[in-house]
């Protein structure tokens, strides 16, 4: 995993336009409509904004183990309260990667994909270890 690649690719897709978070949820809900009921506490726009902010924060702190431990524990508790199950994590990862692939086009290189796959696997491992 290369933190620089994570930062640059995320910065690129977010700078292109504001469609990235919306497109992520479109892909996720098209493939797994059953999860849409977990996202009723906030408006779609607010949820998209929170997703982008949290993703940026995670990428910005990916090398800060103390921050990651603290924040991922908060995320784990929140996701448990929302009813997120272990089987849903791969769905989210696939939607994230496919949204990045779509947004970056030819810029979605094997190196970019590998960095995101490793980062998401680490995040998922941490979020699921207490279940």
Features:
mainly alpha; globular; Globin-like; single chain; 131 residues; 6 helices
Give a structural overview.
With 131 residues, the protein is mainly α. The protein has a single domain, classed as Orthogonal Bundle (Globin-like), CATH 1.10.490.10. The chain has six helices and no strands. It has helices at 3-16, 19-31, 44-60, 65-82, 88-104, 110-128. The longest helix has 19 residues, at 110-128. It is globular. The two termini are 25 Å apart. The mean pLDDT is 86.
Oligomer: single chain
Summed up, the helix count is 6
Assign the CATH superfamily.
Globins
The level of helicity is over 70%
Total number of beta strands: 0
The backbone outline, from C-alpha atoms, is: globular
Order of helices and strands: HHHHHH
Biggest pleated-sheet summary: none
Structural class: mainly alpha
CATH class: Mainly Alpha
From the N-terminal CA to the C-terminal CA, the straight-line distance is 25 Å
Could you tell me the strand content as a percent range?
Answer: under 5%
| CATH fold assignment | Globin-like
Overview in brief:
With 131 residues, the chain is mainly α.
In terms of topology, how is this protein built?
Elements: H1 3-16, H2 19-31, H3 44-60, H4 65-82, H5 88-104, H6 110-128
Helix pairs in contact: 1-3, 1-6, 2-3, 2-5, 4-6, 5-6
